[in-house]
Amino acid sequence: MEIKSEKMKTKYIVFAIILVILIGAGIGLKMFFKPHADISKLKTEYKVEASGLILEFEQDENAATAKYSEKILEISGNLVSKNKLPNGTNLLVLHDEMQGISCQLDSIWAAANKETIEALKTGKAVSVKGICKGYLMEIKVSPAIIVSK
Amino acid sequence: MEDILGESNEAVTILNAETGEIGFQALMTTFHFKRALMEEHFNENYMESTKFPKAKFNGKIDGFNKDMLKAPLANIKITGLLNVHGVEKSITVNGMLGLESGKLVATSKFKVTPEDYGITIPSLVRDKIGKEMEITVKAIYLPFGN
């Protein structure tokens, strides 16, 4: 009886160790192949007006950078330009051509929402949601998606 | 073998058409890598992007004259200060400047050693990564200002 239960114990321990290793490997592989953020699934942390956001960065760049960097923002403003970069990325500029908010649309989202992008008209209001990257003469938001009101 | 390649197309550059002064700024978090995990390591472990969010270069095109802006792409040398990871170093790099398909373009390719800018790569992985990092820049300029 004694010998049998020892064997059972060893079997359980080996099984438990293999399970931990498999879980560890699973977590490791998941992290290694971790996909980039899906903006449509992430929660908006700040809802702002383009003009207000620009003012905040102009008044105190460091404070605004600390507050908004890497956060999900939903920004409404006037679309002043809509362009495609040489690599195919869609670029929307809000509020001001040179010192406004530059938003690079997420390429996966853009491929699935071509009509929405086509329908955008400059001079009209638009709302974008994306990760604020910081300030370099203009506020940079990427990746971003267009949100419907 | 994998390429460790981060690309940003969100940098800002200004070229003074009178003096040949040239400047670049890029937010480290706008360098995108194929692997999300690589991008995370780049920002958190190596560049410490929260502490040092921007990389900056301020310099001057050697022997600049305004005719360079109207001529086809030609070799140039740029000397200036590169500020990365909070460390500023004087560098001189080769590049090209001129008109390409009707647009004013500047390009450059140069190498930097991470350790020169206080970037420590743990000994465990140091041999797995190249000694120097190659930086490739391509800028297209449009007229701005008066």
Descriptive overview:
- By secondary structure, chain A is α/β, with parallel strands linked by helices.
- Chain A has 5 helices and 6 strands.
- Chain A has a 5-stranded mixed barrel with strand order 2-3-4-6-5.
- The mean pLDDT of chain A is 90.
- Chain B is mainly β.
- In chain B, the strands form 2 sheets. Chain B has a 7-stranded antiparallel beta sheet with strand order 2-3-5-6-7-8-9, with no helix packed on it.
- In chain B, a hairpin with a 2-residue loop joins strand 6 (74-84) and strand 7 (87-100).
- Chain B is elongated.
- The model of chain B has no long low-confidence stretch (mean pLDDT 93).
Describe the secondary structure blueprint for this structure.
The complex is a heterodimer of chains A (149) and B (146).
Chain A: H1 2-32, E1 46-49, H2 50-59, H3 61-68, E2 72-84, E3 90-94, E4 101-105, H4 107-112, H5 114-119, E5 125-135, E6 139-147
Parallel strand pairs in A: 1-2, 4-6
Antiparallel strand pairs in A: 2-3, 2-5, 3-4, 5-6
Helix pairs in contact in A: 2-3
Chain B: E1 6-7, E2 12-15, E3 21-27, E4 32-33, H1 36-46, E5 54-61, E6 74-84, E7 87-100, E8 103-112, H2 123-126, E9 133-141
Antiparallel strand pairs in B: 1-4, 2-3, 3-5, 5-6, 6-7, 7-8, 8-9
List keywords for this structure.
heterodimer; A: alpha/beta; five-stranded mixed barrel; 5 helices; elongated; B: two-stranded antiparallel ribbon; 9 strands
